[in-house]
Amino acid sequence: MEWLAHKLDTFLAAVVIAAMAIAACQSQAFIIQYLSRQSAQLAAAKAELTGIETGLRYQLMSDTVRKEIETGARTRAEALQASYDSVAGGNLFAQPLLLARGGDPTLMDTTWRNFVPALPMTPGSIAFTVVGMVIGFVIYEVVKFPFALLIREPKRRKFRKRG
């Protein structure tokens, strides 16, 4: 029975560690896909701003209307650039936190709905996988500890013979 319990413990530990490693690796894949989508939105916003600044259609508008449209387009492009730079330029391990704090909720939702699991082999994803494995191991051991205390055999006191 002890052999089976040990094997079950090993199997469950491997499952939890693998699940956390996969989840951590996929967080890198999600960030890469999010940044790709945000980069496309940023390019479109910059192209729109350039079109407003140089396009003949906008030159024919009154200065007040054109400046108002140009200000709105510039604000959008600058906001997208700042958001992109904060996540893309952030520390590898800070990127998930930066994305959660400053990411565009609509874009994150769209990225999540269209998320394609991947196995990126970048140094960052490998580091996240290793960190995920360590976190999985710690979680498993913390959750297992109370159960191990309940099912362990009580220690028997050894008495010395007097004699």
Key descriptive features of the protein:
0% strand, 6 helices, mainly alpha, 163 residues
Summarize the structure.
The chain has helices at residues 2-54, 56-59, 63-88, 95-102, 105-113, 123-151. With 163 residues, the chain is mostly helical.
Structure, explained:
With 163 residues, this protein is an all-alpha fold. The protein has one domain. It is built from 6 helices and no strands. Helix 1 (2-54) runs antiparallel to helix 3 (63-88), helix 1 (2-54) crosses helix 5 and helix 1 runs antiparallel to helix 6. It starts with a helix and ends in a 12-residue tail after the last helix. The mean pLDDT is 88.
Secondary structure elements and their pairing?
Layout: H1 2-54, H2 56-59, H3 63-88, H4 95-102, H5 105-113, H6 123-151
How would you sum up the global shape?
Answer: rod-shaped
Order of helices and strands: HHHHHH
How many domains? The number is 1
- Counting DSSP H or I runs of 4 or more residues, the number of helices is 6
What is the averaged pLDDT score? 88
Ends: how far apart? 38 Å
State the total count of DSSP E strands. 0
Strand % is under 5%
User: Quick one: biggest sheet?
Assistant: none
Computed structural class: mainly alpha
Low-confidence stretches: none
* Helical fraction: over 70%
Radius of gyration: 27 Å
